[in-house]
Model the fold of this input.
Amino acid sequence: MQKSFVIEARSYGIAGIVSHNFWVLRDDQGSTISQLHGLATDRNSNNFKAIGFFKDRLGFYEFNTEDNDPSFISKKQRSAIVFQSVKDDVLLRWNRASSQVKSLNQHDLDYSPLGLFGFPICNSNSAYCLYARLMDIPCYRFSGILEPGINNDLQDN
Done:
């Protein structure tokens, strides 16, 4: 029997009360291949940062772990397998989202200050839900933690 590839939801806890959600692609050995994130990004330097303020944008990122790009994964994070199948099926879904990173960044969306203020809130969790929609998988919700922006999948932006 062929082993499965998986798309996993992960919760990066902030101060124990708020979550930055993101997606992880794992191979049939359980190794991390890649991560999809939405992050506050400075419009001048184009560098991502931990907290967004006025004049920052929502940046869309794919970090390929094998290239030693930053990893937001830690052992104590909550996670859930959201989609599991043979390699080709999983990669087809993953690539539907990852192939859009460049074009999504061209929308130059304003990042909600502190990721909390504005209507609708536009932040990393909004990107997380958009990625889910592009992959045609559920936008997994983690219980017991605030997930601001998760109800905005950016469909109307």
Notes: The CA atoms of residues 66 and 86 lie 21 Å apart.
